[in-house]
Structure formats: structure tokens, C-alpha cells
Amino acid sequence: MTCRDRFVEGPDEGIAAAVVAGLANEVLDWRHKAIPARFHGVSAGQFAAAGVPLAELQTPLLTLDAGALAHNAALMADWCAHWGVGLAPHGKTTMAPALWQWQLDAGAWGITLANAAQLRVGRHFGVRNLMLANCLTDPEAITWVAGEVAAGARIVSWVDSLAAVERLQRVLDQTGAGPLPVLVELGGSGGRTGARGHDAAVQVALAVAQAPRLALGGVSGYEGALAHTRSAADLARVRRYLADFVRLHRALADHGLYECDEVIVTAGGSAYFDDVVESLAPLASQGVRVLLRSGAYLIHDDGFYRGISPFGRNDPDAASAFRAAMHGWARVVSRTESGLAIIDGGRRDFPFDEGLPVPQGAARELGLPLQPLAGATVTALNDQHAFVRHDPDADVRPGDVLRLGLSHPCTAFDKWALIPVLDQSADPTRAVVVDTVRTFF
Ligand SMILES: Cc1ncc(COP(=O)(O)O)c(C=O)c1O
């Protein structure tokens, strides 16, 4: 049996460019935070073409940097090409089809997603190759995916237990659909999903091989669930896991369990992709499709990923480093206590689960040159406010605007339906909107 045509290249485009382009027709209105009322009634495309200066947007605000996006996309694409590995970026980071298109145009194989609702977004925008980095257990989702595959979609999902395999097979039996390509997910002790250990994973693979409505297409895993720092202990855990991962792939290949012409092995978020490539790249020269799933790399950040990314620890201005492509902007609404400014952005606007926003400078108005704000630290976030402690002598006034470095793109994008993209390459103080990015969470 072959399932090659279910998830490999074809003559069609990686994403339906016309559907993505249609997003420019969306009319801006009261639904869009940070877009002033005078632009309501204008389409997103007209707004992007008008060269609106940063100064004309409203706080709270999240902006993207066009130059940093292009830089990060190209850096990762070049690096993957150098190592001969593919990329199926995790699309849940941005849930922004225009950015997925950017990644696909840069050579990505397809888009990874986390659940059926996200897959529906992918299908709506005509993403050619989709990976569901999870087990399908919801019967509605199983039936829907089977229907999409029967209609020509290429969707590969993961399984990590005998019970999940049995359930998938049972639901597919009811619909008569299949075979669906699946990858066996290897987990690690203390991690998240994934079969615990080599023997358990082999048992899952054997069950898939015996399930007529499933086809074993490879091995999957996520080392990012096992570690959170670059300490020696965390790196050792990641490397042990990757060695187990390769051993599992070899065992399944040796047992002749793969049922698809093309075998996929996939691991790799944005924190340890150097180690992942070191372990998995040799498989690429043996005819296996190696796919990283890094998602956060495209946006990068000024916090967690800056500290942990293989391309984040050196000088952030270096050509070989990712650049933070997102920034928050918020305005002082209250300054009634010495050394404390309350700004108009909070948990609804900015991420806070991997570190609080960091003030990068302040100005009397949006778009004016940023000045350092002495001693400024965000100490707490409420839903609509942030607490900024600063040097009591600093001249901070209501209306002042702060630019914020942010940490963790995955929990920044979900707070914004429409994000202005700035070109600030010529002069940051003359930043203008050159595009907008629409998200679908
Ligand atoms: C299964 C899986 N793969 C890949 C990724 C992407 O990792 P990162 O967000 O570090 O790019 C994630 C992120 O949570 C994930 O859960």
C-alpha cells in the first residue's frame, strides 16, 4: 500500500494564494484593536497601501517588523537547506495564513497544527501538506479528517497508544474511510504526549501495521516538552531523547513496519533545533524526509527564545541571529504614585507566561524617538493594565508611550485579530505600516 500521494509534493501550490490575498478585502472597523476610527470602512489592503505612520495607530498595540520577519524566514530556510532537512513550521504560533505563506514560499514542506479547529483554518486557506501534531481522538475530527483526505487533502497525524490506534480504527470502520497516514509519537518521562519508551512505541507501531484503515508513515516527537533551559542536564535529556528517537526509527524500518513510500521523521521546536538536526539530518541522506516543526523562530522574541534559541544567544544584531519581529506599545494612563506608571496594555494584549514585557524605551508620543526610561521594569500585569516601576526622578507623564520587548510569540498572537506590519528599515522613527497580518484563533 502506498500513501505517498497523501502527503508529498504535488504540482499544486503550498497554500491557496488567492484565498490568502482575499484577506486584504476585509473591511477595518470597531473589531480591530489599535486601528483608529478614521480608518474604519477602509479595507486592510487599502490601509496597508496608504503608508500609515506608526504615529497614527492606537495603544495598546502589537506590531510586527517586516525586516525581521524576512530575515528570520530566510535564515531558517537557508539553514534547513544547508542540512538537507525540511520544515513544517508549527502554524499554531501565529495562526496567520499570510505568515504561513511566507514560510511556505521560503521552502517549507507544509504546516503543522495542533487540533482539528486549526486544521480547518489550514484547509480553508488551501494548505497543501498538513501535519496534526497530536492524536485524533474526537470522533467528529476523525470523520472530518478522513473526509478531507478522501477529497484529496494531505494530512498526517500522530498516535501514541494502543487505545488511540484502536479508537481511530473503530471510528474509521464506521465511515469506511482510510487508510490515514499516521506517525508513532515517542514521548519521554516527565514529558507530555508520546509513547513512553522504545518498547511501548514499537507496540503502537505494530498495532498501526495491523490496522487496515491506518498506514504507518514514520516517527514523531517533541523534545521541547522535556526541557526548558540550556542547562547541561536539560541538553543531556534532549540528546538522550533524540538518540532514542533515532533508535525507534531504525527499529521500525528494520522490522519493515513502514507502509508509506515516503517515511517522515519529525521533531524540533525553536529551542533545540540544532541538536535535533545533528541527530536527524543523517537520516535525510538515507531517503527519509526529516521535518523540523519550529514555529516561534519566525517571530522570535526579546525573552524566552532570545535566551534559548540556537540563533538567539549571540549578538541579536548579528547576521546569524534571529531578530525579535514583535513589539508591544502601551501608553501611560496613570501616574499617581512616585516611581509607578500604569500603562494601558495588560494580559489581554501582551504575553506573560514566559516572562513579563520589558520596557525598551519611552517617548512623549507614538512614533517619536525612544528615550531610555531609567530603572523601568514591568512588575505585574492585570487584564487591561501593566505596572511599570521606574526611577522616581524619571520624567514620566500620562500619555507617554512605552515600547515593550515581549516574550513568547505563541501567546502574543492569540490576543490580536489584526496586526500591523511596520517597515522601519530606513529610520525607526519614520516607521510606516506596510501590511497587516490577520490571525484566526
Ligand atoms: C508538538 C509541537 N511541535 C512543535 C512546536 C513548536 O515549538 P516552538 O514553539 O518552540 O517553535 C510545539 C510548540 O509548542 C509543539 O507543541
Can you describe this structure?
The chain has 441 residues and is of the alpha/beta class. The chain has 2 domains: 181 residues, Lyase, Ornithine Decarboxylase, Chain A, domain 1, CATH 2.40.37; 159 residues, Alanine racemase (TIM Barrel, Alpha-Beta Barrel), CATH 3.20.20. Helix content is 29%, strand content 21%. The chain has 12 helices and 17 strands. Strands 1, 10, 11, 12, 13, 14, 15, 16 and 17 form a 9-stranded mixed beta sheet that branches. β16 and β17 form a beta hairpin. The longest helix is centred in the middle third of the chain and has 23 residues. About 2% of the residues have low confidence. The site of pyridoxal-5'-phosphate (PLP) has 13 residues, from loops. Pyridoxal-5'-phosphate binds next to loops.
Distinct ligands: pyridoxal-5'-phosphate
Beta-strand proportion? 15-25%
Low-confidence blocks of residues:
4-11
Shape: globular
Number of domains: 2
Summed up, the helix count is: 12
What is the helix/strand order? HHEHEHEHEHEHEHEHEHEHEEEEEEHEE
For CATH, the homologous superfamily of the largest domain is named as D-serine dehydratase-like domain
